[in-house]
Amino acid sequence: MAIARHESSVSADVRALLSQIHPVFMLPPLAASWFGAAVAGQFAIAIGALHMTAMFFAVYTAHVKDGYVDFYRRGEDDDHPMSMRGCRFALFGAALGFAACTLSLGVIVGPGATLITLPTWFIGYLHAPQLDTNPVTTTLGYPTGIALAILGGFYVQTGTLTPAAIGFALVFLVTLAGVKIIDDEQDYAYDRSIDKRTVSVLLGPRPARRVAAALLFFGLVGVLWGTLGGAFPPASPLAALAFVTIAVIAIRAEPTIATMLLIRGAYVFLALLFVAVWFRPLSGIVLPDITVLGPYTYLTTEIFFGAIALGLLSYADALRRAAFTIAALYPIAYVWDWYTLEVGVFEITLRTGHELFGIPIEEHLFMIVVPALVLGIHETIRTVSADSTVADSDATADSSGTDSTTDNSA
User: Where are the alpha helices (DSSP H) in 41-134?
Assistant: First the structure.
């Protein structure tokens, strides 16, 4: 039986089978499996390798099935290296390999290992044509597979799940969903022409990009929640910070560049989280104790964040607008603050002890700094978004002008 479509030889068949291993999409699930094992702490390499192999067969199934459907059923691809029988042979072989690994995990670890591993194959097999036409499943398919790879890699080592494992899985599920929305934006025109309902087709490219940005934001903030909540190691936010730096640039780029940056950023994110959970570089480092400032501690923090607020408002040229808003808000904040202090809702210890109009002077400053910081962030985002829109409009106008000139010349 010829596996290769264009040649008939053993070497051609091997090349055709290997052609369905796409490293960009294959490596993350395999790395996620080992990341789950790293979160578990001490792990058995043989068990980890067995689970990683199961992930390989699941993703290989997705690649073969996707290529088969796109070329032989939908006619989307111009060529395919495997024959129709070759695709079916590869699918059958991958299914056998996955079944062998999954059943072995069930025997060695327990039935839970089988149950947590099995869904990854169904996600891969049903990706096309069942799951890749719905905006929810086409977005969450690959991220769900990564999340399950993390959970499975952890479970096969420990026989249980912990908040840390679940938390990391959720972080990658949400973050990669944002990446996938932007990835699908590359095929917006074609997907729309064949009524393929991705998020970009359903909402439009610009609203879909905002949804993607929100998912990236909440996924990375989830790292902060997990760290301060005690589930993640102390160095985890550094991984999120590295990804944020890349995401801020990518979210304003055109779809192809944005996808390239975000995928590579996700690799960096996973690698730094692996370092954080395995080596725990910041464990044992004590937070700076600013209480040495004594009664000036609260005032110092307000001056620090007030300086940031002032810088943001100056950048956005919004000092005057912010001043009016803060002035309108101040009487409400003053009464609210006075009442909560009067009835004992909270108490401020590290303060100067000086009061003005019945409340500490620090609280007067607090009622200016907090709304100023909120307005500063809001106005800065608005300014950056406006600059991006103007740049896009100018690029479109330049492109139209070039096309027009070309047409007139012709």
Answer: 45-68, 84-108, 111-126
End-to-end CA distance of the chain: 53
CA distance 218 to 40: 24
The alpha helices in 109-134, defined as continuous H runs, are 111-126
Q: Are 293 and 213 spatial neighbours (Cβ–Cβ below 8 Å)?
A: no
Q: Which domains does the chain have, with CATH numbers?
A: 10-279 (1.10.600), 290-391 (no CATH)
The C-alpha angle 299, 287, 162, rounded to 5 degrees, equals: 125
Rounded CA-CA distance 211/278 in Å is: 32
Q: Which stretches in the chain have pLDDT values below 70? A: 1, 387-410
DSSP alpha helix (H) spans, 316-355: 319-342
| Cis status, amide bond into 281, omega within 30 of 0 | no
Q: Letter for the amino acid at 56?
A: F
Residue 137 tokens read as: 């499943």
Residues in Cβ contact with 249 at an 8 Å cutoff, skipping those fewer than 6 apart? 261
Residue length, the chain? 410
Angle at the Cα of 291 from the Cα atoms of 290 and 296, rounded to 5 degrees: 95
* Cα-only R_g, the chain: 27
Return the SS3 of 360.
strand
Closest CA to 130 of 60, 188, 73: 73
The whole-angstrom separation of Cα 228 and Cα 245 is: 21
Nearest to 252 by CA among 375, 390, 139, 402: 390
What's the whole-model pTM score? 0.87
Q: How far apart are CA 21 and CA 63, in angstroms?
A: 7
Distance in angstroms (rounded) separating the CA atoms of residues 190 and 46: 44
What single letter denotes the amino acid at residue 76?
A: E
SS3 160: coil
